[in-house]
Amino acid sequence: MTRWLAEQAWLPDRAAPTPDVLIEAEDGRFTAVTPLASGDAPHTGVEVLAEAVRLPGLTLPGLANAHSHAFHRALRGRTHGGQGDFWSWRDVMYAVAGRLDPDSYLALARAAYAEMALAGVTCVGEFHYLHHGPDGRPYDDPNAMGAALVEAAAQAGIRITLLDACYLTASVAGEPLAGVQRRFGDGDARRWADRVDGFRPAGPHALRGAAIHSVRAVPADQLATVAGWAYRQGAPLHVHLSEQPAENDACRAAHGRTPTGLLADRGVLGPDVTAVHATHPTSADLALLAEHRTGVCLCPTTERDLADGIGPARLMADAGIPLSLGSDSHAVVDLFEEARAVELDERLRTRRRGHFTAAALRDAATVSGHAALGWADAGRIAVGERADLVTVRLDSPRTAGVPPVGVFFAATAADVDQVVVDGRQVVRDGRHLTVDVPAELRTAVAAVTGD
Ligand SMILES: [Zn+2]
After folding, report:
1. Which of 47, 99, 194, 388 is 20–30 Å from 180 (CA)?
2. Computed from CA positions of residues 290, 192, 124, 179, in that sequence, does the dihedral angle turn out positive or negative?
């Protein structure tokens, strides 16, 4: 049994945090959550309170980073030399992808996931497509790269959903994979499914999920094979969707449908499906996503970095589409920044304020993200849920004087002070307990960039 006494804790279905909450956990699950002022605390004698670990500041549920490509962390600060767009950025990304092997990927992902832990992320959705050796030939263990990512999450102390991506073609028109892209491909969707079937992630911290890289990368007649695998497994299925207008144009030209329309036609959409980005949907696309109860993972700092555009977050929410958040390319790893960008980008677009409540932004960063990754029992500080806690300082230069309800508009990842994942402390006093994050990032990035 572990007990914490949170100065402030944000409990489910509350519009604002609650002061003085006693939180108890056993075997990685919350067993009691008691606001001391509620009069509902019969066993909270002096001894109980004396032994509880004090959590000064605001304690949140675990944050979920629902969209990650771990190796993109090596690109941070290296793609800003000139002009360009998503496509020119992608060329730089491919150069790094060409250099990774299972050992260097483990080191880089461990450091990247430990940075996430420091930022309060207790679960990552790793959208994984770097499957095979440099010439496209499978490793002896064809899931060696995925296994490295699962192990990296274990060593960083966070949970992972490995969203194994099917990636078969270089364009909507079906051009074959070339160059470094050959590392991504399994030949066809059936062989992708056979490989994924053979993978059993090691450890209770990991779940297996599926991904369709995009309508560029999986031919229309093979979409149902991937979706069917995910459906039969009860696994989450993620897909990059309409990040670029060019993808919409190419899909219309090839299939007479938007990417969303094509996915709907092929039976891909459903409640366990998350569309990543959905930056350029039509109103009919939004209606389809809503009708199928398909979620959307917004990645505002990446969409900003890559000049992608602004997704219609308020229209999505109004349609009943669940919203989650991801740091995607890791230009920034800060779920507070992602969350407030959902509101602030909407302000820039509409020149009006007040589109999302603080509680709605919290839900996108916590419970909705965990649900999108297949962890229905995480993201809320409530009895029976996984014991994830993220405590944010309210006495830092950024947060001093900020009311607890305002944290999503003020705090940064640097204000995260304590992180508990499944009842285990991973970050204490702002330091990762097992990983020297800056040193490991420096070494791991240098190993794959040649610096
Ligand atoms: Zn992505």
Report:
1. 194
2. negative
